[in-house]
Amino acid sequence: QVQLVESGGGLVQSGGSLSLSCSASRIIFDFYTMGWYRQAPGKQRELVGDIVVDRGNTIHTTYADSVKGRFTVSGANAKNSISLQMNSLKPEDTAVYYCNLKMGAGKFDYWGQGTQVTVSS
Q1: Residue 28: other Cβ atoms inside 10 A
Q2: Secondary structure (3-state) at 66
Q3: Which of 23, 36, 48, 69 has the most neighbouring CB atoms within 10 Å?
Q4: Distance (Å, rounded) from C-alpha 112 to C-alpha 3?
Q5: CA-CA-CA-CA torsion for 67, 70, 75, 77, nearest 10 degrees?
Q6: Mean pLDDT score of the chain, rounded to an integer?
Q7: pLDDT tens-digit profile of 4-49?
């Protein structure tokens, strides 16, 4: 079992910034997808952004249209880690944010516990 440990989250004013991080206990494949999803109350979980990593290099990045230009998913300095830099936050960004890891062509799919991000008006 792979454990995803998230940090960050909290309360921030509209227009502010917040950074989340996620570390995987182990990643046994050189090719994997790691990213962030979010779920607001009464809403379905949606992709925020993710990266495809091949031998330590990010080869593809995907973002939801709603966060393009504001959020950035990137590999962190720590091994098996990613971050989510969120800028120009809006109240509609309020949600529980979940780290996700997919390996083995999607056969293995792991989720973090989630961290609350609340953006006040």
Answers
A1: 10
A2: coil
A3: 36
A4: 7
A5: -150
A6: 94
A7: 999 999 999 999 999 999 999 988 888 999 999 999 999 999 999 9
